[in-house]
């Protein structure tokens, strides 16, 4: 039973999270305090929402480096719109549409024009960043959003932030989608063997396009929640978050080769990354070492995974 | 006999070119409902291209087809599926990351309350596998874990369960051994009885004669004729129409005398073994000898061939080349010792499909052909490549063509040539003529016999018994991961060999 569990790709991330929780529980007196749990939620939820998008792309065999700049764009655009005096629902609708549009642009470049995902999404990353910064002015960071906008990041329901509930709801939705719907299963077919998927009649372009569009939308959702939490836009929003998401997804059982991974894995991977940051903060360790730990974990996970796969193949007599 | 009067699928005036290559020229073929219609032709004749037009993978330059009187043009595989046309491809199209069940039912039609009903999925898959004699394959097993032949059968099953009107099988038996091929033919007869129309492509005459109602022949992209297989046509008629000339039928004359040169053995395999994969196996190869190794799928032949070349690790045993113990046993060392290996799955290994053919040729000789500062001797390489292209009648527009754009059989010829470029002393070949047409097969057989007569030792792993019996000086037979017997030239009969090979033979899962 335990062995069976361990073969599941997600169990490594689960194990890592549990270890960190145990360590933090004993080594830090403040880990279980409300304020620490709040900041953990604020760090996990938006990132996990974006990681769901990254995970569905990885399953198809693609990835998106522009999600951080979509987040930034959305944050600053929301600031602009609120300066213009728009009400909260219209701001939200408009910025979500903006995120969706950038996602569609990615999808168009990668799925329709067949531009390499690395090049296309780096291009869009720069476009998004550039657009965001042209809208930026320093004034913005001192102008708070309307109260009902900020409520999205501040208010709670049964002890958890709204954003946490949203993230958990999306976790359920994506888990269900990927496991129990024909549309969700198609992503695995495309990621496993794209040519063959096309041959059995799946529209791989449409599938990949929609995944990019969805990822753009999710990045926008995450952007709204993140700026709502910090109450005003900042130019540092979303920096490096695309890497965090990709690393989290790989630690959580995704693969750049495509064809595998589940939403829970993305969540666990992100949780690990956030708990790790939390540990370095609470235990006042040298934060530079944190990058080392992340890098070592990433490589170790891939090595372990390769080893387990090799073992399995050996046992089946394939190698 | 199906009703031949009314065409069910009417292929009309199809022309298709790839750049300067005219793959199909005004091809028209009529197919009747419920028949097994074989399309026959040499490598590169345009068979696969024609089928891919039916399934919407390629758009024809001109022409169309009619299905049940409706004029159609499939614009995508999905559109062809909607019309009821399904195809099993020459190159496997399976999903190794998914379970066997999902490979059979990728469209997920089994739902309960809007969700995929996995219980039902596995149950239906198990039922279908059982129906087609594949009980040993578990529907929950990952596709990656089952054998090549098993994967091939699963792909066929996927087309069948979609309940098509027309099913196209492009060389479905090229990866199967005789026993499995027979099983497949049985399935096809059964399907035909249910009214399914089958378009069939194969280079194996025995099965073509056994199963076809009618046979259409293509030559160089042109339609030659359609013949009814009612006893009036012979294999030779087919071949003459196919190649447009009379081939002396030297193919498959059973070898009666072994002709190994005397001298120290070239290659000695001693006690090669690995848990659950191979039991204590030894063999000797003498200069000038062709040593055949035969076994049904799952008998351990492919593991033996891979282990003796160092492609897979073994737990025990050693390999001795020309008296020298090779340790560590790696393909690199083997190449350095003059041993070359032909893989049995060109899709996975053996070719760089996206690089020009010449570059592919240069692979094993990069060192040998390097001159000053490591620049390659390109003229010499070009010459060599040209020679092989001529010798094996490889149909390709130019040496700059990518293997990905060659027909399946021509890819196989390129792969074999690559092994021969470094002029090896020892050759280990796996299914050397897989998917190769009769004409070229004769050429390849002649070539192998010729290099053997000049002292090259060849270990030949083949599932085609007639081929082995016509080439090999000795045949060793494997069963249950062990070498269980040997038959020498002179004593060859199918019965003598199958007696060793066949027991517990329908084990498709690894
Ligand atoms: N995608 C492509 N691009 C360019 N040329 C192609 C392409 N596909 C096929 N061809 C060419 O079209 C011709 C017909 O190829 P096809 O694959 O139909 O042959 P085939 O009859 O199936 O042969 P085989 O028995 O070897 O499978 C060949 O000369 C091949 O090189
Ligand atoms: Mg072909």
Describe the model.
The complex is a heterodimer of chains A (319) and B (510). Chain A has 319 residues and is an all-alpha fold. Helix content of chain A is 76%, strand content 1%. Chain A has one domain: ABC transporter involved in vitamin B12 uptake, BtuC, CATH 1.10.3470. Chain A has helices at 2-7, 11-27, 34-60, 67-83, 88-112, 117-135, 147-154, 162-180, 182-192, 194-199, 204-230, 241-251, 263-282, 287-316, and strands at residues 156-157, 160-161. The model of chain A has no long low-confidence stretch (mean pLDDT 91). Chain B has 510 residues and is an alpha/beta fold. Chain B has 3 domains: 7-243, Rossmann fold (3-Layer(aba) Sandwich); 260-338 and 425-503, P-loop containing nucleotide triphosphate hydrolases (Rossmann fold, 3-Layer(aba) Sandwich), CATH 3.40.50.300; 348-423, no CATH class. Chain A binds chain B through residues 176, 179-182, 185, 188-189, 191-193, 195-203, 258-260, 313, 315-319, and chain B through 55, 57, 76-78, 80-81, 87, 89, 92-98, 102, 106-109, 115-116, 144-145, 158, 276-277, 303, 312-313, 510. The site of magnesium ion (MG) has 6 residues of chain B, from helix 1.
Ordered list of secondary-structure elements with their pairings:
The complex is a heterodimer of chains A (319) and B (510).
Chain A: H1 2-7, H2 11-27, H3 34-60, H4 67-83, H5 88-112, H6 117-135, H7 147-154, E1 156-157, E2 160-161, H8 162-180, H9 182-192, H10 194-199, H11 204-230, H12 241-251, H13 263-282, H14 287-316
Antiparallel strand pairs in A: 1-2
Helix pairs in contact in A: 2-13, 3-8, 3-9, 3-11, 3-12, 3-13, 4-5, 4-6, 4-11, 5-6, 5-11, 7-11, 8-9, 12-13
Chain B: E1 7-18, E2 21-32, E3 36-40, H1 47-54, E4 62-67, E5 70-72, H2 77-83, E6 85-88, H3 100-104, E7 111-112, E8 115-116, H4 118-131, H5 148-161, E9 166-170, H6 178-193, E10 197-201, H7 205-211, E11 214-219, E12 222-228, H8 235-243, E13 267-274, E14 278-285, E15 290-295, H9 301-308, E16 316-321, E17 324-325, H10 331-336, E18 339-342, H11 357-362, H12 378-391, H13 408-420, E19 426-430, H14 438-453, E20 457-461, H15 465-471, E21 474-479, E22 482-488, H16 494-501
Parallel strand pairs in B: 3-10, 3-11, 6-9, 9-10, 15-20, 15-21, 18-19, 19-20
Antiparallel strand pairs in B: 1-2, 1-4, 4-5, 7-8, 11-12, 13-14, 13-16, 16-17, 21-22
Bound molecules: adenosine-5'-triphosphate and magnesium ion.
């Amino acid at each position: 039973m335990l062995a069976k569990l361990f073969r599941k790709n997600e169990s490594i991330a689960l194990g890592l999270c549990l270890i960190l929780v145990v360590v933090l529980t004993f080594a830090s007196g403040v880990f279980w305090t409300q304020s620490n749990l709040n900041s953990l939620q604020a760090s996990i939820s938006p990132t996990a929402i974006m990681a769901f998008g990254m995970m569905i792309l990885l399953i198809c065999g693609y990835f998106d480096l522009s999600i951080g700049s979509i987040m930034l764009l959305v944050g600053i655009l929301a600031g602009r719109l609120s300066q213009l005096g728009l009400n909260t629902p219209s701001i939200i609708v408009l910025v979500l549409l903006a995120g969706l549009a950038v996602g569609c642009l990615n999808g168009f470049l990668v799925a329709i024009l067949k531009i390499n995902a690395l090049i296309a999404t780096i291009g869009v990353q720069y476009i998004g960043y550039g657009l965001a910064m042209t809208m930026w002015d320093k004034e913005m960071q001192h102008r708070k959003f309307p109260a009902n906008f900020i409520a999205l990041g501040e208010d709670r329901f049964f002890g958890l932030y709204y954003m946490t509930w949203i993230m958990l709801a999306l976790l359920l939705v994506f888990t269900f989608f990927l496991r129990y719907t024909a549309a969700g299963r198609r992503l695995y077919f495309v990621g496993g063997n794209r040519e063959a998927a096309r041959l059995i009649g799946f529209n791989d372009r449409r599938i990949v396009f929609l995944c990019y569009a969805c990822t753009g939308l999710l990045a926008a959702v995450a952007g709204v929640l993140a700026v709502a939490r910090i109450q005003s836009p900042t130019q540092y929003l979303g920096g490096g978050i695309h890497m965090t998401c990709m690393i989290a997804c790989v630690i959580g059982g995704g693969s750049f080769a495509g064809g595998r991974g589940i939403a829970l894995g993305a969540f666990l991977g992100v949780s690990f990354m956030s708990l790790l940051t939390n540990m370095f903060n609470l235990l006042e360790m040298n934060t530079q070492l944190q990058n080392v730990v992340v890098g070592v974990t990433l490589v170790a996970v891939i090595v372990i995974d390769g080893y387990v796969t090799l073992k399995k193949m050996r046992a089946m007599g394939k190698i | 006999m199906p009703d031949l009067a009314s065409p069910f699928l009417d292929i009309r005036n199809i022309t298709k070119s790839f750049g300067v290559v005219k793959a199909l020229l005004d091809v028209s073929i009529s197919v009747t409902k419920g028949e097994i219609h074989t399309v026959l032709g040499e490598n590169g004749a345009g068979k696969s291209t024609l089928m891919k037009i039916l399934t919407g993978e390629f758009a024809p330059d001109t022409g169309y087809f009619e299905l049940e009187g409706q004029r159609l043009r499939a614009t995508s595989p999905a559109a062809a599926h909607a019309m009821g046309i399904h195809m099993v491809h020459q190159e496997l199209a399976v999903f190794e990351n998914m379970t066997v069940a999902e490979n059979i039912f990728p469209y997920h039609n089994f739902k309960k309350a809007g969700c995929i009903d996995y219980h039902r999925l596995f149950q239906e898959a198990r039922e279908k596998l059982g129906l087609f004699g594949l009980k040993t394959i578990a529907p929950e097993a990952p596709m990656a874990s089952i054998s090549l032949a098993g994967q091939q059968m699963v792909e066929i099953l996927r087309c069948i369960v979609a309940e098509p009107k027309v099913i196209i099988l492009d060389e479905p038996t090229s990866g199967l051994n005789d026993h499995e091929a027979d099983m497949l033919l049985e399935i096809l007869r059964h399907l035909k009885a249910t009214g399914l129309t089958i378009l069939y492509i194969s280079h194996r005459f025995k099965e073509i004669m056994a199963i076809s109602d009618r046979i259409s022949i293509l030559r160089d992209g042109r339609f030659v004729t359609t013949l009814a297989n009612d006893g009036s046509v012979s294999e030779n008629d087919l071949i003459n129409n196919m190649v447009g000339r009379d081939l002396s039928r030297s193919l498959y004359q059973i070898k009666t005398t072994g002709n190994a040169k005397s001298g120290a053995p070239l290659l000695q395999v001693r006690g090669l073994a690995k848990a659950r994969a191979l039991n204590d196996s030894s063999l000797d190869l003498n200069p000038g000898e062709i040593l055949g190794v035969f076994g049904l799928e799952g008998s351990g032949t492919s593991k033996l061939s891979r282990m003796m070349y160092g492609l897979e690790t073994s737990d025990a045993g050693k390999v001795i080349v020309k008296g020298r113990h090779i340790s560590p046993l790696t393909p690199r060392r083997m190449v350095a010792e003059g041993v070359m290996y032909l893989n049995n799955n060109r899709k996975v290994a053996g070719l760089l499909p996206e690089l020009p053919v010449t570059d592919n040729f240069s692979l094993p000789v990069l060192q040998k052909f390097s001159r000053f500062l490591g620049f390659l001797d390109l003229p010499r390489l070009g010459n060599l490549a040209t020679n092989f292209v001529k010798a094996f009648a490889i149909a390709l527009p130019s040496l700059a063509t990518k293997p990905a754009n060659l027909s399946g059989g021509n890819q196989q010829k390129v792969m074999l040539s690559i092994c021969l470029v470094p002029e090896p002393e020892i050759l280990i070949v796996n299914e050397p003529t897989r998917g190769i047409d009769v004409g070229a097969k004769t050429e390849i057989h002649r070539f192998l016999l010729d290099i053997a007569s000049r002292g090259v030792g060849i270990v030949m792993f083949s599932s085609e018994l007639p081929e082995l019996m016509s080439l090999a000086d000795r045949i060793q037979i494997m069963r249950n991961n062990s070498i269980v017997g040997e038959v020498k030239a002179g004593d060859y009969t199918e019965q003598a060999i199958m007696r060793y090979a066949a027991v517990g033979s329908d084990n498709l899962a690894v």
